[in-house]
Amino acid sequence: MGAFRMRPCLRSLPSPAWAPSSGRRKPRGRAVSPALVFEAVLASGIAAVMGGVGILLARSTRKIEERHATAVTGLAAGLLLGAAFLHLLPEAGARLLLHEHSLVEEGLAVLAGFLVLFLLAAAIGRSRDVSAHEEAAALFWLPVVAIGLHAATDGVVYAVAAEAGGSALLLILPGLALHKIPEGFLAYGLVLAAREDARQALIAAVVAVVVATILGTGAGLALLPWLDPVALAFVLAFTAGVLIHVAASHLLPHIEHDRGRGGGPAFVAGLAIAIIAARLFGG
User: Fold this and answer.
1) What pTM does this model have?
2) CB 202: neighbour CB atoms within 10 A?
């Protein structure tokens, strides 16, 4: 999910007012125009609808997902790693280089995201009042939390792209909106595999994919007058670290444990989808 780079926006659009070449920094506290709000909310709404389509597809194939939970987990691992390495990290790096920052800073942000999830998982595992079954179920919620964080980050990106201009929004919208379909599908499938409760899976998927995207756009619009583009780059890199930890530490061990159930081929398929999407939409 999310394996789409936005660097074409940086290459094809003139440098914004806050770029170093202009010699001026972005003014603080500037009012956000109604037209900008409309464009960002429209883009966010389209993405949310795509996420809803993915959730509906997951519900319609519930029996298949229940029988192939390991394959769904493998597909999620491939898509999350693709999102981190082919979408978030290239975009964050491009923004930092544009503003004359070191890629070491990007690495630190990635490491921070990785460590936050590591510490959260460790805290869950060390809780004395949690049984082994409850611990496993709680840890399985981490991928859904990561998907929600990724969706919220995408929402912020819609707001930033709307400010950059309509052409920037048109460049990124196809990729970012279309990847909401597998995002919704996987969020529903992961919760269903962990909790075996269709109603809970539906609620969690809607919150993680649909609501998080809209809230992310709202937060982006609220912070836009004060949002430094470098800060957005760090948010993207931090989110990449979260996704890498979830895929490497939670999803991949699960498919390695349940060998022969389609997890490996599904993981490769997820990576292939991410790579193809990056080539098609990443320029």
Assistant:
1) 0.69
2) 18
